[in-house]
Amino acid sequence: MTRRTFHRAPEGERRQELIEATLDCISEFGLKGATVRQIAIRAGVTAGLVRHYFESKDQMIAEAYRAVIASLTEKAQNVEGDPATRLREFIAVNFTEPVADSRSVSLWAAFISQVRVDPVLAEIHREGYLAFRNTLQELLSEFLAAKGRPASEEECRRYAIAINGLVDGLWVEGCLAGDLFRDGELVSIAMASVEAVLGLSIEN
Amino acid sequence: MTRRTFHRAPEGERRQELIEATLDCISEFGLKGATVRQIAIRAGVTAGLVRHYFESKDQMIAEAYRAVIASLTEKAQNVEGDPATRLREFIAVNFTEPVADSRSVSLWAAFISQVRVDPVLAEIHREGYLAFRNTLQELLSEFLAAKGRPASEEECRRYAIAINGLVDGLWVEGCLAGDLFRDGELVSIAMASVEAVLGLSIEN
DNA sequence: GAAGTTATTATACGCTTGAATAATATCGGC
DNA sequence: GCCGATATTATTCAAGCGTATAATAACTTC
């Protein structure tokens, strides 16, 4: 019996691979199909290694969730240009890969469904949601000011909640059943709706 | 050893109880925590009975999903009155119990997360989404006509997609973290946004 | 009220699960 | 080039999983 060959992964890299493998498994087989063994196979290692990098499977799952939130928000945070351009980009990003992807929404839903079960995941969700919404609120505040219609923080808050809801809702359905919509239809509907809600054009 | 006493449930009733117990378990423990044994305990029967009513656990889960979709949509389908009232009701219902409830969104998310895994669930989702959206589209068509601004089917379709997304998105966040919003805030934001999108008041 | 039907319980089976442990191969420092 | 440290594999374990089967208790019918 010959033992399986292997190489030691560089610092931190294996952790990342394991998290990525975890997400792959969750999106493909669901949370209950994402077993330690399945994840190990996907990562190209043996099951025992998981416990060398994480205290428990649950802890690994929680870290994987943090990675999902980060990937869903980071693209939206780092937009550049004048306020109108940034607002347009912020919206468009959600209807473009890799955010607009059935894998993303599967992961998002899988974790959402655990928010009630696991307080740790609930806290991660809450932070992610607020970060996303606050980014949007700040963006709206600048946009409205630039358009010569500055709004109170309270007003921006309401706009941010509405637009965040709109974008999220369209994002979910677009990811789940993209074939129900024409190319570019969702982003076009989103833009038009945001303009209507704000009562302003998002063009420069 | 004395055997556990029991009574025979009337036709269909036990099925319903088992489905309800399934949903309870999914919302409380997640899909992977909803085991046959847990579900049986919740329903007040023994595990073996599940297979007397359902061919398999998977089939029971699928039927449970149908029940969720039904509960989320039936409230919205059966609104009465003039078009404006019905439109207002349609929206408001989504921010009122039992639709607006963390249990509902947990169930919704749990199944959504399986859409990629299980084609049966994917089909159930698709039907439910389209039924909901088409109801809304019909409602919008009547509303716009009544307001003296009749719109083409294509226009109504776009409005329906947008408003459905908006309502869904707000519903999700409201259910997940209701404490982030003031009383009635979400329904108020939803109404205002819908009015902005349509460019019309929803009052009579 | 006895007989027949079947809903329900009880028990068992094979498999998978997350985790613990022991053996071993790889690598950095010297 | 050896040596200690540790990343990785291999193996094992008890618990829990979905399901199958057999015994039994509760109704129905006559």
Structure description:
2 copies of one chain form a homodimer. Chain A has 9 helices and no strands. Chain A is elongated. Chain A has helices spanning 13-29, 36-43, 50-53, 57-77, 83-93, 102-112, 119-146, 153-176, 185-198. Chain A has 2 domains: 7-54, Arc Repressor Mutant, subunit A, CATH 1.10.10.60; 64-198, Tetracycline Repressor, domain 2 (Orthogonal Bundle), CATH 1.10.357. Chain A is mostly helical. In chain A, helix 1 crosses helix 6 (102-112). Chains A and B meet through helix 1, helix 6, helix 7, helix 8 and helix 9 of A and helix 1, helix 6, helix 7, helix 8 and helix 9 of B. Chain A binds a DNA duplex (30 and 30 nucleotides) through helix 3.
Number of helices of chain A: 9
Mean pLDDT of chain A: 94
The helix fraction of chain A, in percent, is 55-70%
Low-pLDDT residue intervals, each spanning 5 or more residues of chain A: none
- The amount of beta strand of chain A, in percent, is under 5%
The biggest sheet of chain A, with number of strands, parallel, antiparallel or mixed sense and barrel status, is: none
Q: Give the count of structural domains of chain A.
A: 2
Q: Distance between the terminal alpha carbons of chain A, to the nearest Å?
A: 69 Å
Rg on CA atoms of chain A, Å: 20 Å
* Overall CATH class of the largest domain in chain A: Mainly Alpha
The CATH topology of the largest domain in chain A turns out to be Tetracycline Repressor, domain 2
Which of globular, elongated, flat, extended, rod-shaped describes the shape of chain A? elongated
SSE string of chain A, helices as H and strands as E: HHHHHHHHH
Number-wise, the strands of chain A total: 0
The oligomeric state is homodimer
Q: Which chains share the greatest interface?
A: A-B, 49 and 49 residues
Find the structural class of chain A using helix and strand composition: mainly alpha
Q: For this structure, what is the CATH homologous superfamily of the largest domain in chain A?
A: Tetracycline Repressor, domain 2
